[in-house]
Amino acid sequence: MVAASFSRRQWLAASGGTMVAALLNPNGVLAQTGSAAAEAETDQKPHEPTYSESKSFDWQFGIKLDTPVTFTNGLATFPIPMDWPEQTVTIGTRDVSGQISQMQVRDLPGGARQVVVGIARMTANSSLNVLLNYRIDKRNIIAPAETDSLVIPPRVGREMRSYMGSSPMIDTTNGQIRALSRQLATETQEGESAWVTVRRIYDRVREEVTYTEGPIRNASDALKDGKGDCEDMTSLFVALCRNAKIPARMVWIPGHCYPEFYLERDGGGNDSGCWYPCQAAGTEQFGEMQEDRPVLQKGDRFKVPEQRKIVRYVAEFFRCDRLGKGSPRFDFVRELKS
Q1: Distance, CA of 15 to CA of 316 (rounded, Å)
Q2: Residue 224 and residue 314 share a domain
Q3: What are the pLDDT digits (tens) for 213-225?
Q4: How many domains in the chain?
Q5: What ranges in the chain are assigned the alpha helix state H?
Q6: CA dihedral in degrees (252, 258, 263, 269; nearest 10)?
Q7: Which of 228, 249, 277 is the last residue of a domain?
Q8: Residue 312, number of CB atoms within 10 A of its CB
Q9: How far is CA 45 from the centre of its chain?
Q10: May I ask which residue range the UniProt record assigns to the signal sequence (predicted)?
Q11: Burial class of residue 55 (count of CB atoms within 10 Å of its CB; 0-12, 13-18, 19+)
Q12: Are residues 82 and 164 in the same domain?
């Protein structure tokens, strides 16, 4: 068997489980359901983020495959964008050249969507393209007008629990991270809003860690060494928020990532809760996000059916059973077209 999954670094560099659709027509137009991301904001509350006018971008996702050897039981998966409050995804045409046995779209719990391509048999010296075209309308996130009423959620529902504990590379229980969390807690002033509490965490991460490119590491390594890249700094921010009982998660975009944190309006309950972004590494942005690149997935704790371990991001994946020597050659596509 041949099996390959992009590493976390390859996943970023290449950017520059419930089935929700079964796509049987190989040359048709895809359809998928999503959140009502672009609904009119008629009931806007002052503690909620607002959004700029959208910009439209055309992206292509998929796989290009050729093989010198016959194989069976081929399976390819790759992540695709989905609707979020700051973006709307419209699925257009697709180009499928070659024989596939199935193509499905599935949502993974926690904020990721995949295309799953089945290839029952592919003969030697043949090729296959599966290319999906998307129109993505992206909006900047504008910080809320009023933040004094925001509080840390007094109770966290089941759907939010994955944003409260440890995740791969987000080692919330590490001794140094716990010690910093306790120190930050002692600096809290009576009556201060949760917004101020999170801002203190944000500032401390940027004070403690200098941006430096490097290999993947735990959040605690960045704190210990005082240096790290966007992933390391985002992981540390998320860990510190979670230790303060503030739900937080990673947001993945092509070539970059940043965190989001969740707060509620005092007395408003879960219905008043909102996610707010910030830029852990790079130009300071807190509670806002000016970013044209699409959100690929949100979260950092995913269970992918084809993999045994919990993963922090959903990467491209390919496997097959070869009937001879040689290995299939494949390139996953994630490309801005216009």
Answers
A1: 11
A2: no
A3: 989 899 999 999 9
A4: 2
A5: 8-13, 175-186, 194-208, 219-225, 230-243
A6: 0
A7: 277
A8: 20
A9: 26
A10: 1-31
A11: exposed
A12: no
As a whole number, mean pLDDT of residues 45-74 equals 97
Q: Are 136 and 149 in the same domain?
A: no
Question: Domain limits at 106?
Answer: 2-34+43-140+297-336
| Domain-located, residue 283 | no
**Is this prediction's pTM over 0.70?**
yes
Q: Are residues 89 and 154 in the same domain?
A: no
> From its phi and psi, is residue 39 left (phi > 0), alpha (psi between -120 and 50) or beta?
beta
Same domain, 242 and 320: no
> Any idea which residue has 């309950």 for tokens?
269
Q: And the tokens for 31?
A: 């359809």
Which backbone phi and psi does 20 adopt, to 5 degrees?
A: -110, -10
Instruction: Please state, as a whole number, how many other Cβ atoms lie within 10 Å of the Cβ of residue 325.
Output: 7
For 256-306, the pLDDT digits (tens) are 999 999 999 998 888 889 999 999 999 999 999 999 999 999 999 999 999
pLDDT value of position 110: 86
Q: How many helices (H) and strands (E) does the chain have?
A: 5, 19
Return d(Cα 287, Cα 147) in angstroms, integer. 10
Scan for tokens 């909102």, then name that residue: 274
CA dist 187 → 164, 182, 284 (Å): 22, 9, 22
| pLDDT above 50: residue 33 | no
